[in-house]
Amino acid sequence: GVAVVKMKNPPVNGLSLELLTELVISLEKLENDKTFRGIILTSDYPGVFSAGLDLTEMCGKSLAHYAEYWRAVQELWLRLYLSNLVLIAAINGVSPAGGCLLGLTCDYRILADNPKYTMGLNETRLGIIAPFWFKDTFVNTVGHRTAERALQLGLLLPPAEALQLGFVDQVVPEDQVQSAALSAMTQWLAIPDHARQLSKNMMRKPTADRLVKQRDADIQYFVSFISRDSIQKSLHTYLEKLKEKKH
């Protein structure tokens, strides 16, 4: 009753419009197929869980495209955050920004013990900010003060610190991430689904409802923010730097 969903969008599992859409479709299929009770979310590329939102979707495109993209990001978050299935993140690589958010939406997070595999919402380092519902998810996970400091400083933490501050629930040797995820899943699936789902919903629905009520306003805000000249310039500069690194 457990599905393993592996992200595969080379080179860094950027959350492109296509990947967001594919993930939502996969989730819907698994939710509707009553043989499945849990999902292990992981990456097909050890070393990178997901580098987060795909900046090329937010740079030099039309306003309509930005709106469509942001609606897809919201949709994936809502689906993951409120899923009736048990979601366990098997984080086998770096997970900044949107990659960290994917982990935070899960019920339980396991991170591979490699000092290179940092995790955090580092939006401020790019001159942008994490949306309120990223922030809410983070606060719900690590508490207000830790979230406040981490968000302002755009902290990306290595495994030991990520565990200490509650970004993740478990840090295990790299070759044991998958088996640790399976044994954690056994523990979660030992609870009657109905009771667990109602408890999850009780904890999470108020947070999700905040976005549901403000979805259109949130999209408009994103579009107006991302289309500013100054933001477009800094995204463009950042993408150019990434290109140089590759070469």
Automatic annotation (TrEMBL):
It catalyses: (3Z)-hexenoyl-CoA = (2E)-hexenoyl-CoA; (3Z)-octenoyl-CoA = (2E)-octenoyl-CoA; (3Z)-dodecenoyl-CoA = (2E)-dodecenoyl-CoA; (2E)-tetradecenoyl-CoA = (3Z)-tetradecenoyl-CoA. Pathway: Lipid metabolism; fatty acid beta-oxidation. GO terms for molecular function: delta(3)-delta(2)-enoyl-CoA isomerase activity. It is found in: Mitochondrion matrix. One of its GO terms (biological process) is fatty acid beta-oxidation. It comes from the Eukaryota. Coiled coil: none annotated. GO terms for cellular component: mitochondrial matrix. Signal peptide: none annotated. It is an enzyme of class 5 (isomerase). Key enzyme of fatty acid beta-oxidation. Able to isomerize both 3-cis (3Z) and 3-trans (3E) double bonds into the 2-trans (2E) form in a range of enoyl-CoA species, with a preference for (3Z)-enoyl-CoAs over (3E)-enoyl-CoAs. The catalytic efficiency of this enzyme is not affected by the fatty acyl chain length. Homotrimer. PANTHER family: ENOYL-COA DELTA ISOMERASE 1, MITOCHONDRIAL (PTHR11941:SF45), ENOYL-COA HYDRATASE-RELATED (PTHR11941). This is Enoyl-CoA delta isomerase 1, mitochondrial. The gene is Abca3_2.
